[in-house]
Amino acid sequence: xxxxxxxxxxxxxxxxxxxxxxxxxxxxxxxxxxxxxxxxxxxxxxxxxxxxxxxxxxxxxxxxxxxxxxxxxxxxxxxxxxxxxxxxxxxxxxxxxxxxxxxxxxxxxxxxxxxxxxxxxxxxxxxxxxxxxxxxxxxxxxxxxxxxxxxxxxxxxxxxxxxxxxxxxxxxxxxxxxxxxxxxxxxxxxxxxxxxxxxxxxxxxxxxxxxxxxxxxxxxxxxxxxxxxxxxxxxxxxxxxxxxxxxxxxxxxxxxxxxxxxxxxxxxxxxxxxxxxxxxxxxxxxxxxxxxxxxxxxxxxxxxxxxxxxxxxxxxxxxxxxxxxxxxxxxxxxxxxxxxxxxxxxxxxxxxxxxxxxxxxxxxxxxxxxxxxxxxxxxxxxxxxxxxxx
Amino acid sequence: xxxxxxxxxxxxxxxxxxxxxxxxxxxxxxxxxxxxxxxxxxxxxxxxxxxxxxxxxxxxxxxxxxxxxxxxxxxxxxxxxxxxxxxxxxxxxxxxxxxxxxxxxxxxxxxxxxxxxxxxxxxxxxxxxxxxxxxxxxxxxxxxxxxxxxxxxxxxxxxxxxxxxxxxxxxxxxxxxxxxxxxxxxxxxxxxxxxxxxxxxxxxxxxxxxxxxxxxxxxxxxxxxxxxxxxxxxxxxxx
Lengths: 390, 239
What we know:
heterodimer, A: alpha/beta, six-stranded parallel sheet, 13 helices, globular, B: alpha+beta, 8 helices, 7 strands
């Protein structure tokens, strides 16, 4: 089959690889009909996430048709059309029972690696670093889905692939980021990063009752989208002073909640911290660039929440912990518990409360993956989201 | 300090004593401040006894040094929490034939009846030390212990306690012990140690948890990848 494989930093190619087979009783094989490139795939593309191996199949946002199920799977059957959450969850361990699916105890075959790094390991992920199990991903014609009686969700034929594809990751991720903000009526929410997760976080903030959303980015098309689709007030951090504008827009209070939808590869500009991070990461003295996190902690009102859907991987330098402590902030973060949100958000889509297709800028063939990665990384051609069909 | 195991290899002990002497004697360092005297004394003590508190703190053993382990029992302790009732977990473990499913150092265990069983270990170089064992304590669903009978290739024993938590999960506390003399299976014990037995037991218990909770052990072995194929050439150099 055709699959998008990682062969090194900024080197992805479409290779002909063997078809996947069932390896465990609770596996299924899905024929992929649509798959997307996620912002977190760019972290792999840029080589900032360790423990990738040459030849790894990428992709954790995918959907398709079930073509084979293992002997332990009875909840889905051949022919079902399903979306598959990016995190792999067994459904029966203590975290899964608490609906903290992305923290599953049992789905990461390389749990020992993350235990060394983080103390404990979360769930295995599709198409990601071997720290998360090294599972083959879904940017391919076929994909093996472990614990297929827990992960895949059936979707109705009345909805198109594009309408439901983002239930696999970015829509629930934006939604959980907003849920984590403890939004009350009248609240002002600031969102750093107007990529797909940021856009869904903006829309979700209103679903939780936010009165205003302020969106921060530097890419004009993305700010326009935030204003048009998300009714957000916008700040271009390349030309404006973010802290000052936020203070003015909230009449001195500061946003009630701040969402960092950027993560470890922030392109801070102008601040001393951003230069410092850039130099340190290039000299391999640091792993993460955290200018957005610093800004969010600094800008947030006293007693507010900083919600972090953006991915961080290592040890952060110069985190303004003093500011977070002095202002009594709440910090919430983590991989999305996708399984928990799919039924509700699918219902939102069916009832027309939200149409996730607004995010798609490019519809390509899987064969175009190398160009698509480059374009998405450079944010050229107004690229916000690429959907590929095998 | 005697409570610590001997965890240094012979060469390390010699090096430690030499360093102590050097720190005390080398002219360049003759300005003997209190810290250097303390450091020198610590190195001397460490080298003389072979018991290093820092190694103990990071659980380092001296795998290559057979003299350090030849006369001591090897003991492994670890614990895991399984989200299943104690009776279920006890029941699985009580059928000793299940142990090789999650304990990789075991080839097989046969139940002989009368509380007796026959164990075959999977050693290095196709070595397979064998022994008969008998159940010592059998207290469902809280505890189980066993020990090998005289004539064993490797004298060994084990004890497991199953403690229910408030949320009806089960804490499984395991203690395994291998006793000298090792005889011709010394290398099997050294191999067990060399493979870092502590983390090996840790992985064994992880597999137990995965089996009992998820019903299977997660794997990516045999999955598709672009590793053993000829990748297409890069169409364009990355910018």
